[in-house]
Amino acid sequence: MHTENVLICGAGIAGPALAYWLDRYGYAVTVVERAPAPRPGGQAVDFKGATHRTVLERMGIWEEIHARRTGTTDTVFVDEHGQRLAFMSGDFTGGDVEILRGDLSRIMYERTAARCEYVFGDTVTALTDTEGGVRVEFERGAARTFDLVFGADGIHSRVRRLAFGPEREFVRHLGHYYCVAGASPWSTTAAGSRERATAHGYNTPGRLAVSGGPKAQQLYLFTAPELDYARDDVESQRRIVTEAYAGLGWQVPRMLEEMAAFDDFYLDSLSRVDMAKSGYTRGRVALVGDSGYGNTLGGFGTGLAVVGAYVIAGELALHDDHTVAFANYDAIMRRYAKIAGRSNAGRFLAPKTGYGIALRNRFLESPLWRLMSKYSDDASNDIELRDYPQLVAP
Questions:
Q1: Where is the FAD-binding domain (predicted)?
Q2: Where are the alpha helices (DSSP H) in 49-157?
Q3: pLDDT at 2 exceeding the cut of 90
């Protein structure tokens, strides 16, 4: 049983998952999150395969996730006149169970809030790693020293930048941006709904627009070089999307008009984190989830986050020396996280040429698509999941 004080930066998915396990192993856990409160809503995330389910069952949250799962959404790709071109089953995109990101984050937060210290509305500004611990300076709170620090703060991780180096050294822009706008069509559906919905996607070269119908959540995905915009300036981000889709037909004009009034709006690049040379740990600092092995819309991010949290906490429970635990975590997750580096959703969903769109549509209708789906299922289980000590802090 451990008594060290640890800091986790980020209260999305990886952060609370890690907080759960570290608390069970006796660590005194503090979680700092820049947002003022747990973030609601968001896009749907999914889990697939025995590995993901095993970790969630060991956390005691599988049944609650299943009870609050979304319905399944199939996607029909159409031409400008609404005629069907190809079909992508929601059974592939939604895994074994799909849940809104905000709902999953809330489940994990509620499991840890009573025992872990959560500090909302603040963030890390400086880290000084010493032999006796990591001195952490905050944007608002007083400086504190922790035995270990974990970055679970996403692809644009501040902890990674402070401990490892500039973002440009580890994050590769994949040539696309994506935007999710509007409330999910499942946000007002009864928990555990088994309803099946159909979204429609429309492509032109380098652009995809997906709508589940009037007032449903929208997805935009488009090619673009790295853009310079303020991450907190939503209005300028809306203009970026509007300009990227100006002049398109189908339902796009209606979608853009609705988007202007949606409160729920998120724009970001499709990016891939590559920590192959440095590993996910440095000194007393470690990265978990998207901060270490993120690949936007790659299909494995949430599963990797919960498995990574389970592994690093378990290794720390087995070893008194964090350097041994960190080395084992690096070795285990470097192999497993390779699945995150093998996909580029932008090239598949928004091909840059008309020929590429036609080829994608033919692929979706072919037996090869079913083989790729099976590969995805196999990859999610490609890890020897250790049965770490099931210790419970007093």
A1: 5-317
A2: 49-59, 62-67, 90-93, 101-112
A3: no
